[in-house]
């Protein structure tokens, strides 16, 4: 159930269909006409709200509504197999409200045919936040906002965010959003497809009185081998499915370098200095909800809040790293958070582009849920530790069974699952050893951002067969306790004497997280001695 409302709509208003787009002659903002179950005085929203505009969704819900539609999933060979048509061409006869809008016709297994509205495809593929929704209608905007260069010889790219760019700087702290923007900017087919939206608008839009109107359409990327999970109306007689919403798009072709650096002159990273006079941190959770004022200005002063939204699960065909590069340092406040109760209130917000000095507080949505497996890309962060483990496994009675790198999970109101330096995932190396016939687990966390020192944790679980489930509890507790080992959880898994911590060697130059390679031999000997003591006790 949503904790934000559109004041112009009644409660529990359902989107039945999505019509043409429009723009007043003397305005710059585009709107989207909606056909709503329970007619309203105003039946449209601006394109900034495109991330949540899907058929059969409810606006201003007061109860939890079940997801509507028949679930279906399918793979495609290439988008070249899909044909463009009008929704009115779908053999399901009760779609009169949508009939003028464009769709793609997709062959499926079993003789079925999917009719996929082009707006829904554009939403799930590109309209992942307000910026991407608005600028899609301006094909020249990406060139103005981003300076992109690619060095294929080193498999690296550089994205400079221009000072005039309207992309919210805070959004670059979100790895999923950073990755998705990089794909649009760098993948030739993705960018061409995204910019085709604005080109189609200019080519096929038409004047109607004081308005410019347009039936949404675009040229999709090929997406060879992509997987779709959708929900919609299935008609058994014609074996046709009319898609309401796309839940997942996986195996998205990403023809981009393996590592991407993103820079803006205002990006900062925390220094090791502490600001003892820092202001108290405002308690989280003091905003009970938001009223979204459609087509009203947003104020550029202050950070934009992120409104909760249903996500589109996406997965790229290859993993890649995006780094937020900064030259400025900021002092970290040592002020203690105010743990007192604060008055919860409803905040008035706008999802439009921010303007300095006027308007409501800025708000945005992110519907990106990037599930691409990429933890292995960060293995180099653990080189010294893994070298030490390799030395240990050369000793008699020590065998390594497995090694895996995990991203620490996001936890509500916590930030330690990301590195403070570049916003990349904070990872943990999990090593399973067999020492004197017993399973021993080593947990090593990436603290390269110098947030704090964290010793290696060594576990002797009482029930090794349950370890996979127990690992999730440990990672969750580690983030929730702000990078402190969750002792109570570990006691439950191992017993009070079944887990110990072992200090790292002194760090290079006194910097947390930077280990000296030449300490490996001594570190391994000391480490193995402690492990044998624990196993033998």
Strand content: 25-35%
| Cα end-to-end separation | 52 Å
The multimeric state of the shown protein is single chain
What is the general shape?
Answer: elongated
Number of helical stretches of at least 4 residues = 9
Arithmetic mean of pLDDT: 88
Q: What's the structural blueprint in terms of helices and strands?
A:
Blueprint: E1 4-5, E2 13-24, E3 31-37, E4 44-46, E5 58-59, E6 70-75, E7 83-86, E8 102-107, E9 113-117, H1 118-125, H2 130-135, H3 141-145, E10 146-151, E11 156-161, H4 175-186, H5 188-204, E12 206-208, E13 211-214, E14 227-235, E15 240-252, E16 259-263, E17 268-275, E18 287-292, E19 298-299, E20 305-307, E21 312-316, E22 321-325, E23 328-333, E24 345-350, E25 354-355, E26 360-365, E27 368-370, H6 383-392, E28 398-407, E29 427-435, E30 438-445, E31 456-459, H7 467-480, H8 487-494, E32 499-502, H9 520-536
Parallel strand pairs: 1-18, 9-15, 11-16, 15-21, 16-22, 17-23, 18-24, 19-25, 19-26, 20-26, 21-27, 24-26
Antiparallel strand pairs: 2-3, 2-5, 2-13, 3-4, 6-14, 7-8, 8-9, 10-11, 12-13, 14-15, 28-29, 29-30, 30-31, 31-32
Helix pairs in contact: 4-5, 6-9
